[in-house]
Design brief:
globular; Spore Coat Polysaccharide Biosynthesis Protein SpsA, Chain A; Helicase, Ruva Protein, domain 3; 3-stranded antiparallel beta sheet; alpha+beta; transmembrane helix; manganese
């Protein structure tokens, strides 16, 4: 149920009336629509209730400069970083685009960044396209961080009774959403001009598309809004470490229009739009993953291999604060949680190619990752393609590591009888310098 406690926006804002403050990047709300959160005071009473104290380290609690974030307050104007062709004149979007439920999960987020995220959505989106903004408070220390924001039009608050992490919190938000399209945002974002229409347009045209904006950079030090390159897509290495990479040259040469969608093997995972029925049909998230990390690979593999596609849209821009460390604790530690999550993704989706994951991340061997029976059953039920198809058709640029000419004939304990040239010998079982996956029996490289 939605949090029933509500506050008058005048109380939250510290003023008796709400003058509508319109950003130059957005049109004022039409008559009859609720005014967006803002006004002259910019939500000052909400912000002032929890501010950095003199002498405190501004980076300690949130891994970004809280002092600078609080100086900006609840909202600001940002530069339109789209290509000049996205001038609003040459682009035509359907007049009957579906509305969306915005889902934002957070744990002990700074009030200033959380409020700016919400206000940017309300100020820079057509009101008719925002059905609701669902905040999932993942058991933050102060429940009022979320509850007070229910005074803002269209904002609802759900609070977890214990720490669940991003993955399970997003599933809870999606289950509560009333719109046919889901938009997932991080809690330290600022959406840019006309960001939402191109995302909804692509999903409306094909409900199996999962689309992401270009993610601009908000400096963690001075909160400058910096334009990201429009020639990047998501990629990864065999340890399942996400990286931004240049669009392959042949794809770049084939793009006659720099505003055309970019096919991407994986998405970063923090910001994307997806049809709700498609999200449910594909199995939502793997809720046995913990806290954060690896869920973007699992979702990306599943979307591509089970009949969908992933795109980055240059016509949509959203700024994001990229931090150098996690400001919150992982119950089992950051490294172990990431290994657990990525191992689940590898075991369910990567087939024989998972041996390269274990070679690149040997510390994953022997680490617990829970039962994957339900996810394997989901894959069979959806009749998903093999990972070999993904490698050949989606991400052929990911090179398969070369292997030594070694063929294991017999295994006893941790030793394998191996052939090397003309001789035989016992040696520790291995794959490409790492340890053999416990569930891996194939020794020849894929395609060999």
């Amino acid at each position: 149920m939605w949090v029933e406690q509500r506050f008058k926006w005048s109380q939250l804002n510290g003023c008796s009336s709400l003058p509508v403050s319109c950003s130059p990047l957005s049109a004022p709300p039409p008559a009859g629509d609720p005014a967006p959160a803002g006004g002259a005071a910019g939500g000052q009473s909400y912000l002032q209730a929890k501010q950095l104290r003199p002498g405190d380290d501004p980076y300690r609690d949130h891994a970004f400069n809280l002092q600078e974030s609080e100086r900006l307050g609840g909202g600001r104007d940002i530069r339109d970083t789209r290509h000049y062709r996205n001038n609003g004149v040459s682009l035509n979007y359907d007049t009957d685009l579906p509305s969306t439920s915005i889902i934002i999960t957070f744990h002990n987020e700074a009030r200033s960044t959380l409020l700016r995220t919400i206000k940017s959505v309300l100020l820079r989106s057509p009101p008719s396209l925002i059905r609701e903004i669902i905040l999932i408070d993942d058991f933050s220390s102060d429940p009022e961080d979320c509850q007070l924001l229910t005074a803002v039009p269209k904002v609802h608050c759900l609070r977890n009774s214990r720490r669940e992490g991003l993955i399970r919190s997003r599933v809870r938000g999606a289950d509560s959403a009333s719109a046919s399209v889901l938009t997932f945002l991080d809690s330290h974002c600022e959406v840019n001009s006309a960001w939402l229409q191109p995302l909804l347009q692509r999903v409306k045209q094909d409900h199996t598309r999962v689309v992401s904006p270009i993610i601009d950079v908000i400096s963690l030090d001075n909160f400058a809004y910096l334009a990201a390159s429009a020639d990047l897509r998501g990629g990864f290495d065999w340890s399942l470490h996400f990286r931004w990479e240049q669009i392959p040259l042949e794809q770049k040469m084939a793009r006659s229009d720099p505003t055309q969608p970019i096919r991407t093997p994986v998405i970063a995972g923090g910001i994307f739009v997806m049809d709700k029925n498609w999200f449910n049909h594909l199995g939502q998230y793997d809720t046995h993953m913990d806290i954060w990390g690896g869920e973007n690979f699992e979702l990306s593999f599943r979307v591509w291999m089970c009949g969908g596609s992933l795109e980055i849209l240059p016509c949509s821009r959203v700024g994001h604060v990229f931090r150098k460390r996690h400001p919150y604790d992982f119950p089992e530690g950051n490294a172990l949680t990431y290994i657990r999550n990525t191992r689940r993704a590898a075991e369910v989706w990567m087939d024989e190619y998972k041996q390269y994951y274990y070679s690149a991340r040997p510390s994953a061997q022997g680490k617990a990752f829970g039962s994957i029976a339900e996810r394997l059953a989901l894959r069979r039920r959806l009749n998903c393609r093999p990972f070999r198809w993904y490698m050949e058709n989606v991400y052929p640029e990911l090179r398969v590591p070369e292997q030594d000419a070694v063929s294991s004939l017999l295994k006893q304990g941790r030793l394998c009888l191996e052939t090397r040239g003309d001789g035989l010998g016992l040696a520790e079982c291995r794959v490409n310098g790492g340890h053999r996956p416990q569930t891996q029996v194939r020794t020849a490289p894929p395609g060999g």
